[in-house]
Fold each of these.
Amino acid sequence: MTTPISRGFHGRRSDGDQAARVPPGNYLTRDFPVLSAGPTPHNPLESWTFDIRGEVAEPRTWTWEQFIALPSERVTVDIHCVTKWSKLDTSWIGVSLDTLLDGVSSSAGYILAFSDGGYSTNIPLDDVRDGKAWIVYEYEDKPLAPEHGGPARLLVPHLYFWKSAKWVRGIELRQEDAPGFWEGYGYHNYGDPWKEQRYTDD
Amino acid sequence: MERTAIHRRLTWQYASVVDVVAETARTKTIVLHPGDWDGHLAGQHVDVRLTAEDGYQAQRSYSIASAPEDEHLVLTVEKLNDGEVSPYLTDELRAGDQLELRGPIGGYFVWKESLGGPLLLVGGGSGVVPLRAMLRHRRASGSGVPARLLYSARTRDDLIYRQELGGFDAAITLTREQPEGWTGHSGRVGRKLLADVAWPPAERPLVYVCGPTGFVEAVADALLALGHDPARIRTERFGPT
């Protein structure tokens, strides 16, 4: 169909340099919107653990103290939310999934990340390896705020941000893919912002 | 407009603007007639896309304000002063225009009879919009599920759907003024007001909270402090932190 012109609409365009970094259908924001399906969980760090479980020879568990003692990296990336905002040059500190999965023997093709509050999201295993994903606990050099997923969240910047599960508590390695929370409510199974994979059949 | 919602690809389509009605100084209600609509659930939203003459496009999501049973698809939009799309929708759009949209979208922040209750709806500012769709749907469907709205606005003039809310079990609180003759509540929604208005945790109400981020954070935290089950609390937030 031909695109109708919205009479009297001019729009606000981003600078050329920055516009190239914003996926189609998204706009640039300097705010940091919060989107969550339920209340923000507040659980003490003393009982926090991070698990790797499922199709692995030996499941792994880290306590909070053990986790933040792992080698960490600073990551500066652009993030893109399915609700249309993009934010450039966000800075995080956390542990690479490569570090957590180092030496893990598995024939799994997928992960299901799971969180406090019952949230989950599914991602192909290849999409969290080779420097593409982190478990982050600092944002802009401060502890990650609870409403943004603190104490720790997954960060997978090349996918829509709902894949970067807040309040993450572990990953389950799986032979077969299974939809996570939003994927079961009509959102795209993979979620590539540059292909505008917002909803199921996009 | 109610039809059985079936899974189909969400494609962009035109909707004709039937009417644009001022709700408050900052909000307009847009009455739409979509070309093809398979129905929606109360609480869902749509994506709206605008196109400039040179092809530049901008899109945003807006909650559906109408019940599935209503004749038209209705959005209520709050104007953001530095917004790109909302000022166009509130100030420029008029009856007879075409609007491009797709939806309905979202399956979690929705209410239908089978989810039960009692139903507690807590809205801040324009967060009342999807909650109004739930209240209208409950009434239109003849549901016997008890439902109560707690609505927080800055001033009496900021109240959206002010006349209509009188027909629901609605408690209203104003945070920035206490006008003469005001018989509703005053101040922000916190533990005390929730304890006064909400069903106790033992009644296991199903709670929907929608509003600006700070509002939703505060209300959800207060509900947890009162002992409500986090799994019975659904939230939808908008605006910056």
Amino acid sequence: MTDFAKDFPILSQKVYGKRLVYLDNAATTQKPDSVIDTMSDFYKTEYSNIHRGLHYLSEVSSEKYEEARKKVSDFIGARDPSEVTFTSGTTGSINQVARSLEPSLRGNEVLVTGVEHHSNIVPWQLAGAKVKAIPMDEDCKSLLDSMEITNKTKLIAIAHVSNVLGSVNEIKEITEIAEDHDIPVLVDAAQSIQHLPIDVKDIDCDFLAFSGHKMYASTGVGVLYTSNRFSDIMPAIGGGGMIDKVTFEETTYLAPPLRFEAGTPDIAGAISIGAAIDHMQKIGMNKIKDHEHEVYSYARDKLLEMDNVTVYGNTSQMCGAVSFNLDNIHHYDTGLILDKMGVAVRTGHHCAQPLMRSLGIEGTVRASFALYNTKEDVDMLIEGINKVEMMYK
Amino acid sequence: MNDAIQDEIIEQFEGLEWFDKYGLLISFAKELEPMSEEFKTEDNAISGCQSKVWIRSHTEDGKLIFDLDSDAMITKGIISLVAKVVNNRPPQEILNADLYFIDKIGLKSNLSPARSNGLESIITRIKEVAKEEADSNT
């Protein structure tokens, strides 16, 4: 396998005198030189506010920003760039939908899966909806036959991939069921956009949300895909840059995407998403998927082989993250000692407390992967786990 | 303010590698008397994302004694050291205590509020209890 890691300068450093093994990618990914350079060059030579000025730099900035939107649109198979809105991230995207749909959600229900993180639970509750989870089996697989759709169900909001377990939800089956009931579907792609090729037309969802920083781009920026079927929903936030005409009596709004982007957006951030897409496409999403699958399966198999390790969740398709615990050793202790071995993992409830409750645990150790991880990284993780066990003997 | 207990702890950790430091903390954790399950209630808990800590206290002859426990061994090791330092002291003395040993033995990062909401909240709770006791004595 080619060495994808060499493009990521942060990975060449040592921590505590050891090679850094970064396995906390579900929290955030590292940035390649191409993304860092694109942002740096933008600030050095092209930066200005967009869609406002008639001067040279504003033209350049606007063009770069819209170019990034077009890249996102092509990357996710949208019908048109107007379906792509830049937001502050997955959480921002989901909140934007919750706010826009609030009139229909209030007093009604949003159906989610049992593996959701808090960002796909709390915004619906804030919009006055009751959140109901699709029942799941002991492997944390959603039981779609037991999915209860009533006349109160106004939206189905589902993670594409679980941030804790790495299990892939059957989103296409869900959108098909939803279509039969004429219910819109939001897909939270925060943990899939960087791992799997995505086509919104194929998935046939109405909304798709993801973050830049989990796909090798900058923090504080993300995407909300809104199907053109919903192009006339009310914007969640109002202000400059999204209006057609304002009087003290009444305001009319621009067409999407600008109607959903009030205020000055994270211009450099949006451009960094474009650069990150370029980076991934240069390698090829299918190649990334295959490479990650190889490393991921290797890690999962190695962990499953260990007598004293419990691995959580199992569906026919898994990617990104694997969660586990060592018998009789607290996840926090495991994480602290792995850290000193140079292995960065995440421990805790991973902002998915309902899932932890259904698993009957307080938290897990989570190793999560990106395109630059290798089997050697997995070997370091396993070596670290052995060291943790030795210390507790 | 220097004190003998803290200085002794610092001495024990001096020159140790990380693994040995953690090893030592684990052995301190094993020494700590576990709290009876019935007292591990939400009221007695300081709960963070990472590990749980339970804290109880009582006074004996005007001196405060804290009973601490945690579900994570390294956290438990750290709090057993905190207990060693603060226990059996008059409330006012605990209130004024500077727990400089945490920094000196290299556990300062464990103090950060984001990291397990741990030590910081525990020390805050200990000081609150000491203040209440000190106030009620005056």
